[in-house]
Design goal:
The complex is a heterotrimer of chains A (about 325), B (about 290) and C (about 425). Helix content of chain A is about 75%, strand content about 0%. Chain A has 15 helices and 2 strands. Chain A is globular. By secondary structure, chain B is mainly alpha-helical. Chain B has a single domain, classed as ABC transporter involved in vitamin B12 uptake, BtuC (Orthogonal Bundle). The chains are: A mainly alpha (about 325), B mainly alpha (about 290), C alpha/beta (about 425). Chains B and C meet through helix 1, helix 9, helix 10 and helix 11 of B and strand 11, helix 7, helix 8 and helix 9 of C.
Chain lengths: ~325, ~290, ~425
């Protein structure tokens, strides 16, 4: 049984590793690392909604809502970038709250497609209304995160490594909050709704209210991820948040596995590294989607519990026991 | 104005025809197997590429190409059933991801084999039925409409009059009860995949001479098909057809009198509205959600 | 790299230094394509455009054209810089038309591969790359001059100044077919279509041709164009203008015009794969179709003022290797390389700053269709677009033929205000974007 001390040691090791990672990478890999970190927040927040058993196809558009709101807040209203990012997250949560009324009248497959439709409507509105959303070209020249100095160190947020550290703090904090939520009675209720919808209801749980809550929280963090993205690349357009992106988020999550908190993160990291680094290194140009497609099929066929299942088997074999014991 | 309306009506009829072929296949697959085939648009695309390969490439007679397209894409459907949907029977989300993988593979293979440019399909016929100066119906479009009516009628007869059809309907309603009745899930799944994929394939074959054929042509079709099957109610074939016709007319009319983006927004909003009022679609039943 | 002592800070020089250091490293593993009399190290050129996905048709054929260009140059010894011959190599990066991936790609090409110049499609992807361009001073080119702005000092639009050249087609039409008085237009509702709409409106107004109704915008996801066309020709216009749209739309729209019995004039920016359009309509129907992109086997391209190396042979080789894929982008990226090569040879250096100075120094440049001037202050806020003559191409007897080269600056001198008026109405001036 890991003692308090070894646990703290493990955490320290992880933090040191996360801090050291970018220095072992090439310049373009550092860029990919930034996007990967942001995507970790997207998939983790996606899983929060999935806990209640509902799968959305509108998550990436909600992320876009955060991105647009944050970009417009800083560009049109002159709000400082960090505050604008929070505005973006809150706007995404608010939009999700508004959408929850029609969407949670449905469930299962109907919810999946309903959320897709709601997302598409939002995306078409961005395309259609050039003022203020910029139409199909979207918004350009979004304020970057202002540089700042800590004693003698300068953080220049054009540099991927700087922005990576910034994202690490924001995403780390968000992950911690979501972790706490999942372990709280609230999180247990989400699980209960997933497994026994009707039973939970008869136990006096207002299923719809809890689903709405999960949706709003997940959307807020997704919006935050969008804001992080917008102020880094400096441009967003409706196509950055289309079905194709959503499909990527969905596949990362499912290939990683959703039983544990770390599954989607694992899936996201593995597939992004595969697609953006490994396949490019080998010089596949047009073959990249082909191999990626095969990997998707093979992983759902042969890893029914996702990558996390593989990891659990591995660590389980290592420790000679399952993960249940260490969960407490 | 009357002429404009008449022409718009003919345009809508054509849109309804090919959309319903795609949507009915999607509904059939979902009904029997409980899985969302995200690659359904790519089956449509593969049908169009059968025309590119055989008709444009080797000049095989079009009617023969249509038969080959139907069977070929139907067999691709069977392949999908064997390789991904059957092993993933208990995991609808796994099936969804696997079908996304299949979609990427199909697009990439076609891009590599045929190139990224749009493909050349010579017209099968350039005959146009002229009702008046401004109201015309090209024969190829009439083919699509007639073929849709024919195939959907055949499907209806097949489902109502044959033992297979009975089994298929039974498993679409309640797979477990059907299994208890001695209906082989494997067999019905295979048939559903063959028929569903084949319908998408024949839609691709028929429209290939009319639209731009490219590796990514499936996307626009699948989005419309999703809307249609939701509005119609997921388990209902009749619903899919009715919703296809309604969607095609509304979309075409709004495109003609306003513009395409507004038409898309209208379509999606109507769908949300239907879902809010009747969360299981117009013809759907509550127990299959 | 991220944390820097305050005193240090990043300078452009430092970036380029680290870039050339990386290039030195890269050389060890570089394979020289073909044998050549080259004695200098390989000059690498970045090609940052969509190579997969729905926009691939705007990138992939360009890379194919560039590879032919590189073979020819290397067979002839390479690029002569300060007396040393350097072979040239293209490094592609698939940006999937995504700004974030374009940023990553630009970083890789500059800081890891050590390229000297990067060619892009531009559009959605440019704003993602712009901060990298500003920091590194790397020279970039785009096919879409609407990416230009007062602060894009190292971005040039040297091949096509889309959509300004579209005025030449309308001007030619007005001079040669003065009986055409009314027009309608449909356009794809995006960054490609809208500036072009404004340009055509200005050109029609300048030519005294009246629009029957507002341009009909359609969503790029449209598959069935019958309703659009039905609406378009409902008032019997003399001219149907297709604006600038992807060939995936030009073809079905043209086919619908044919099937719905239209008999008037058609004008379009592009008509890629027009032979297929003829197949699907008829040679008679397309007779007189006006557009802006010649086939390179056109004898009119062999005139002495053309600055493209052996266009007829290029067309032939390209079609041999990539049958049926010839389009506008096939030659455009290669023609940018001609311009770059002569500037680099003139400057005696391949460094981005030197090449840019040599390229734009005297205010003129060797454009594929003849000497042209660096222009654009009015519309783009910067003189980084190369504008001169542009061919008007007409389909005659089933074959595209250049009818005339017309001068864009001359048109602009007369009608510039009109263009600015329509551009601002569509929000396309640089200070509105």
């Amino acid at each position: 049984m890991p003692s308090q001390l070894t646990r703290a040691g493990l955490w320290l090791l992880l933090i040191c590793m996360l801090l050291a990672v970018p220095h072992g990478l090439s310049f373009s890999q550092q860029e990919i690392l930034v996007f990967l970190t942001i995507n970790v927040l997207v998939v983790t927040s996606y899983r929060l909604l999935a806990l209640t058993g509902e799968w959305s196809l509108g998550h990436v558009v909600i992320m876009g809502v955060g991105a647009y709101a944050s970009a417009l807040a800083s560009k049109e209203l002159g709000i400082a970038v960090p505050v604008a990012m929070i505005t973006g997250a809150l706007t995404a949560a608010l939009v999700a709250f508004g959408l929850s009324y029609p969407l949670f009248r449905m469930k299962g497959f109907y919810f999946l497609i309903g959320s897709f439709a709601a997302g598409e409507i939002i995306r078409l509105l961005w395309k259609r209304f050039r003022d203020p959303f910029g139409g199909p070209k979207g918004i350009k020249k979004i304020e970057p995160m202002p540089d700042f100095d800590i004693v003698i160190w300068r953080f220049d947020f054009f540099e991927p490594v700087s922005y990576y550290y910034f994202c690490l703090v924001v995403v780390g904090l968000s992950l911690w909050i979501m972790w706490r939520i999942e372990k709280s009675p609230l999180g247990l209720t989400f699980h209960a709704i997933h497994w026994q919808d009707k039973l939970a209801e008869s136990a006096g749980i207002n299923v719809r209210a809890y689903k709405t809550l999960a949706f709003v929280i997940a959307s807020g963090f997704s919006g935050l991820a969008g804001a992080l993205l917008a102020h880094y690349i400096g441009t967003i357009n409706p196509n950055s948040f289309d079905l194709e992106q959503m499909v990527f988020v969905l596949t990362w999550t499912i290939v990683g596995g959703t039983a544990t908190f770390f599954g989607p993160i694992l899936g996201c990291a593995a597939l992004v590294i595969l697609n953006e680094i490994v396949l490019r290194e080998f010089g596949f140009e047009q073959g990249r989607p082909l191999i990626y497609g095969f990997v998707l099929i093979l992983s759902v066929l042969f890893l029914p519990r996702g990558l996390e299942g593989l990891l659990q088997d591995f660590t389980g074999a290592l420790r000679g026991r399952g993960r249940q014991g260490s969960r407490q | 104005m009357i002429e404009l309306l008449a022409q718009t009506g003919l345009n809508s009829l054509y849109a309804a025809a090919y959309l319903s072929l795609v949507a009915v296949g999607l509904v059939l697959i979902f009904g029997v197997m409980g899985v969302i085939n995200f690659a359904h648009g790519e089956l449509f695309m593969l049908g169009a590429y059968v025309v590119v390969a055989l008709y444009s490439g080797f000049g095989v007679p079009y009617i023969l190409v249509a038969a080959i397209g139907l069977i070929f894409v139907g067999c691709i459907g069977i392949l999908m059933e064997f390789t991904i949907f059957r092993p993933l029977r208990d995991s609808p989300l796994g099936g969804l991801v696997a079908s996304i993988g299949f979609l990427l593979i199909a697009q990439a293979l076609v891009s590599m084999g045929f190139g990224v440019r749009m493909e050349h399909v010579p017209p099968v016929t350039q005959e146009v039925i002229v009702f008046s100066e401004k109201v015309r119906l090209p024969l190829q479009r009439l083919f699509v409409i007639l073929a849709a009516v024919m195939f959907l009628s055949l499907l209806w007869i097949f489902l109502r009059r044959t033992r297979f059809g009975w089994a298929l309907r039974a498993s679409a309603q309640d797979a477990e009860a059907a299994a208890l009745q001695g209906i082989s899930i494997r067999q019905t799944s295979l048939i559903a995949m063959f028929v569903g994929a084949g319908l998408a394939g024949i839609a691709g074959v028929l429209t290939a001479p009319l639209i731009s054929v490219g590796p990514h042509m499936g996307h626009a079709v699948i989005v419309a098909a999703f809307i249609v099957i939701i509005v119609g109610g997921i388990g209902s074939l009749e619903g899919a057809i009715v919703a296809s016709v309604a969607y095609a007319f509304i979309h075409t009319i709004v495109t003609t009198f306003w513009d395409g983006v507004i038409a898309d927004i209208t379509g999606l909003s109507l769908m949300l509205l239907v879902l809010i009022v009747r969360p299981t679609g117009l013809f759907g039943t509550t127990d299959r959600a | 790299m991220f944390v820097e002592f305050k005193a240090g800070g990043h300078t452009r020089r430092k970036f380029l230094k680290s870039a050339s250091a990386m290039a030195g490293l890269g050389l060890m593993g570089a394979h020289l394509p073909g044998r050549a009399a080259a004695d200098g190290h390989v000059i690498k050129i970045g090609f940052l455009a969509p190579l997969t996905g729905p926009v691939a048709a705007w990138g992939k054929p360009g890379l194919d054209g560039c590879r032919i260009w590189a073979e020819w140059i290397n067979a002839a010894g390479g690029i002569n810089i300060g007396g040393k011959m350097h072979p040239v190599e293209f490094i592609g990066y698939d940006n999937e038309y995504d700004p974030a991936k374009a940023r990553t790609g630009a970083t890789k090409l500059i800081r890891e591969d050590g390229v000297k110049f990067i060619m892009m499609l531009g559009g959605d992807t440019w704003p993602g790359v712009q901060p990298v361009a500003e920091r590194t001073g790397m020279l970039f080119s785009t096919l879409l001059p609407s990416d230009l702005g007062p602060d894009t000092t190292t971005l040039i639009a040297p091949a096509e100044v889309h959509p300004i050249y579209n005025v030449t087609g309308v001007e030619w039409l007005a001079e040669n077919k003065p009986e055409l008085k009314t027009a309608v237009m449909c356009a794809q509702d995006d960054a490609l279509g809208l500036p072009s709409v404004a340009t055509y409106l200005a050109a029609f107004e300048a030519a005294g041709i009246s629009m029957q109704h507002d341009p009909l915008l359609f969503d790029p996801a449209t598959t069935d164009f019958a309703p659009v066309v039905t609406r378009l020709i409902s008032d019997n216009p003399d001219i149907v203008c297709l604006d600038t749209c992807y060939s995936d739309y030009v073809h079905p729209i043209t086919e619908q015009l044919f099937q719905q019995g239209y008999g008037g004039q058609i004008i379009s920016c592009t008509a890629d794969f027009y032979d297929q359009m003829i197949d699907r309509t008829s040679a008679e129907f397309l007779e007189g179709f006006v557009f802006q992109f010649p086939d390179f086997d056109d004898p009119a391209l062999n005139q002495p003022f053309i600055n493209f190396n052996d266009p007829n042979k290029f067309f032939e080789v390209y079609n041999e290797r990539h049958p049926g894929e010839w389009g506008a982008v096939s030659w455009e990226y290669a023609s940018i390389m001609d311009l770059w090569k002569s500037a680099a040879e003139g400057a005696g250096s391949a460094e981005p700053g030197d090449v840019l100075a040599a390229m734009t120094g005297d205010g003129t440049g060797a454009h594929a269709f003849g000497t042209a001037e660096w222009w654009g202050e009015d519309l783009f806020g910067i003189n980084n677009a190369l504008v001169g003559n542009w061919p008007v191409v007409v389909i005659e007897g089933g074959k595209a033929r250049i009818k005339e080269y017309k001068s864009i600056p001359e048109w602009y001198a007369k009608h510039g205000e009109l263009l600015k008026k329509h551009m601002s109405a569509y929000g396309q001036m640089w200070d509105q974007r």
